[in-house]
Amino acid sequence: MTTKITIAALQQMKRDGQKSIGVVAWDTPIARLADRAGVDFISVGDSVGVNLWGHDDPLQVTLDEMLICCKAVRRGAARVLLSCDVPYGPVQESPEAAVRAAKRLVSEGGADMVKLDAAADHPEAVRAVVAAGIPVFAQFGLTPQTAAKHGIPYSAQNAAGAQATPEMTARLVEEAKLLEACGACALDFTNSGPVVGAAVVSAVSIPVIGGFGGGPWLDGRVRLAITAIGYGEKWLDLKVDTYANTAKAALDAFGALVADARAGRQIKG
Predict the structure, then answer these.
(1) Cβ neighbours around 124 below 10 Å, total
(2) Of the spans 52-61, 89-98, 145-154, which averages the highest pLDDT?
(3) Are 151 and 200 contained in the same domain?
(4) How many CA within 13 A on the CB side of residue 113?
(5) Does residue 56 lie in a domain region?
(6) How many angstroms separate the CA atoms of 173 and 85, rounded?
(7) Least packed by Cβ within 10 Å: which of 50, 123, 184, 191?
(8) What is the distance between the alpha carbons of residues 120 and 188, in angstroms, rounded to a whole number?
């Protein structure tokens, strides 16, 4: 087995100018495939509710549900660095509640670090979790909520920071510095864009990684596994480029299974 990826290794990659790459995953089979493919980390995101379970709101996901996903991914990926989201609730409740939740994700779920969403709004929670000996992957960036906080209209044009103002850049750089000072080991920068993203990367010594709205200007990228492989009904019609179209392959396979069974032929597999 290849040497296990550590937080120190991820941070060294930034210093060496080497991009880190992760996927968001929630189950053992995908975790095993991602591990074998050579990703550096897997993020168990609370977006599982919307993307896999049919919820209409990510806030519906509970800590116990996150633990189920975290354990499943850990069983499938021994080499990669594993991050797990603290779902909505504990961080907003109090630093003490955030610590309790983080401890469960590490001790029961097997996470190497925990991700705190909207971390710049809760620096006291970041400090408390770090003080408890648990590494924090701190999420921040431009969302409809944070744009309102900064007094910036949120639109499709500025969602990826394409219309970044000097004021917005300065504020997000300061938030990144604050999170690093609070002890975060890495940053998850949502909707960075090339202007703010590059400024933040230069301003902090910890890795700055991005998913939606990220790009090559960051230290690393994270992608939903289901997006990378085109998994889900929407990929039957979407024209967006991805690395595979599992939805189309699955539809064809299910159709062939139905045809074989109804024709009295032996089914495959």
Answers:
(1) 12
(2) 89-98
(3) yes
(4) 26
(5) yes
(6) 23
(7) 50
(8) 11
Which has the minimum average pLDDT: 19-33, 140-154, 251-265? 140-154
C-alpha dist (Å) from residue 198 to 51, 161, 202, 226:
29, 11, 6, 27
Distance set, CA 187 to CA 34, 49, 181 (Å):
21, 23, 12
- Answer yes or no: pTM beyond 0.85: yes
Q: How do strand 20-24 and strand 220-224 relate by DSSP bridges?
A: parallel
- Count how many domains the chain has: 2
Query: Does residue 68 sit within a domain?
Result: yes
Rounded (10°) CA dihedral 197, 216, 209, 182: -40
What whole-number distance in Å separates Cα of residue 203 and Cα of residue 123? 18
Lowest-pLDDT choice from 27-41, 100-114, 146-160, 181-195:
146-160
82 and 122: one domain? yes
What backbone torsions phi and psi does residue 262 show, to the nearest 5 degrees? -75, -25
CB atoms within 10 A of CB 97: 17
Same domain, 211 and 236: no
Structural domain that includes position 19: 7-228
Indicate the burial class of 66 (C-beta count within 10 angstroms; 0-12, 13-18, 19 or more). Answer: buried
Let me know whether 135 and 268 are in one domain: no
Whether residues 11 and 70 share a domain: the answer is yes
CA-based nearest residue to 73, from 102, 45, 103: 45
DSSP state of 5: P
